[in-house]
Design goal:
The chain is mainly α and about 425 residues long. Helix content is about 65%, strand content about 0%. The strands form 2 sheets. It has a two-stranded antiparallel sheet with strand order 1-2. A two-stranded antiparallel sheet has the order 3-4. Helix 2 crosses helix 12, helix 4 crosses helix 10 and helix 5 packs antiparallel against helix 6. The protein starts with 9 loop residues before the first strand and ends in a 6-residue tail after the last helix.
Length: about 425
């Protein structure tokens, strides 16, 4: 099949006899693969913004992630029972249900290993967003994923991607990371100036500890009778302190090393899940017995998502009763009764699930190294960060120049990686 979304219905056998029958849907054309990657890019860049929004509104990340995890698995089940069951399977390409009973456990374990590292990475980023910010977190994790994961996928895919195009694309990501780091540094300096100029937060010409800023601001507003009458404008010192008062994860007074450590850990986890999935679907290490077909992308994604779900449930239920980073304790009962923002969290899970599925469908056709172009998702996340959260509002000209440089380089990077797409034989 050469067209995305259109299964082959008629086939012409020798002698001119026409036989009908649907084949299992697989993306096989370069155009279809690129369409999958572009749609995945939008989905995977949007769901982090939704989870960040809920944390900023004060919802516990444990509650949000439990909701997200449920629909993330649901997306994999939907894909398996639709695309994976369309038409009649063959011996070489069996349908989803047929593969569940086959002796393909080595590939299943690779798929599940990929799900585990993705779950750990996603879990880590929900805390990193609070400390480092949505845009910079996505830039750092995406760059680590590209540098490590894309290189591994290039060799696993038997170099089907054009190296002369692929690796300059990796270089573009690294340049964008430098811009992103500079944006974070410049924006942090801008915020410090805003807080320093806040009259009641200074004493003898020096700013008091950030941990006391929100309390000072709250007292000031109560004295002025304006705590509930005015909404702080994006980018102002009032806005920054109001945000600290509302959000679930308190970040004032905490060192930047905590956030950066979590971010780099998440990036390392993300760099491994795609190569693991690649091994699950293509068996480059010849772990399957002779005659056992490779896992289809749909079956592998199902096992991948099941392990992702199990790890997320275990860790987040643990964090309900033994929270990290000074978050308040919760319980299963409290989680079940917390409907504030639940539908948004469920939507985020669907977006992430379908986004990952589309990425893998595109990667199976055009090479997983090229499919890593979806790691340009900071383009989408930065858009939502500016639109929804007011990131970089009222910042300096230097910050805006660096921001434009980062986004421009990411646009070049995603285009170059997609141009390196090959075709799996």
């Amino acid at each position: 099949m050469d067209y995305i979304g259109i299964p082959t219905i008629l086939s012409i056998e020798e002698g001119g006899v026409v036989s009908s029958g649907l084949k299992m849907y697989l993306v096989e054309s370069k155009g279809g693969a690129i369409a999958c990657m572009l749609l995945a890019l939008v989905f995977l860049g949007t769901w982090p913004a939704i989870l960040t929004l809920l944390e900023r509104r004060g919802r516990l990340p444990q509650h949000t992630y439990l909701d997200y995890t449920i629909t993330n698995l649901l997306a994999a089940v939907i894909i398996a029972f639709t695309f994976g069951e369309i038409g009649n399977g063959t011996i070489e390409k069996p349908n989803f249900l047929n593969q569940l009973s086959q002796d393909n456990w080595p590939s299943v374990l690779f798929a599940m290993a990929g799900g585990i590292v993705l779950s750990l990475g996603n879990l880590a980023t929900q805390y990193a967003w609070a400390f480092v910010g949505l845009s910079v977190t996505e830039v750092i994790t995406s760059s680590i994923t590209v540098v490590i994961g894309t290189t591994l996928n290039y060799f696993l895919d038997d170099k089907i991607n054009k190296a002369e195009i692929l690796f300059p694309g990796v270089g573009c990501f690294l340049i964008a990371v430098c811009f992103g780091s500079a944006v974070h540094s410049s924006n942090a300096a801008d915020n410090k100036k805003k807080l320093t100029s806040f009259s009641d937060d200074t004493k003898d010409g020096e700013m008091i500890n950030d941990a006391h800023a929100s309390e000072t601001y709250a007292k000031k507003d109560l004295e002025n009778g304006s705590a509930s009458n005015e909404k702080a404008k994006f980018g102002t010192a009032h806005f920054l302190i109001e945000l600290e008062n509302k959000r679930a994860i308190k970040v004032f007074g905490k060192g930047t090393l905590i956030g950066l450590s979590i971010t780099f850990f998440a990036g390392f986890c993300f760099s491994l899940f795609s190569p693991a999935f690649n091994l699950a679907t293509n068996d480059q290490w010849n772990t399957l017995k002779n005659g056992v077909p490779h896992l289809s992308v749909y079956t592998a994604f199902f096992y991948f998502s099941v392990s992702c779900f199990v790890i997320a449930i275990i860790l987040n239920i643990t964090f309900l009763y033994k929270p990290v980073l000074n978050l308040p304790k919760s319980s299963i009962k409290a989680y079940l009764s917390d409907w504030e923002g639940r539908w948004w969290a469920l939507l985020a899970g669907l977006l992430c699930g379908f986004g990952n599925g589309l990425q893998f469908m595109g990667g199976q056709a055009a090479g997983y190294a090229a499919a890593d172009a979806v790691q340009a998702l900071p383009l989408v996340s930065t858009f939502w960060g500016v639109l929804l959260f007011g990131e970089y509002r009222r910042s300096s000209r230097k910050t805006y120049v660096l921001l434009i440089g980062m986004l421009s380089m990411f646009i070049v990077a995603v285009g170059v990686l997609m141009a390196s797409s090959g075709h799996r034989k």
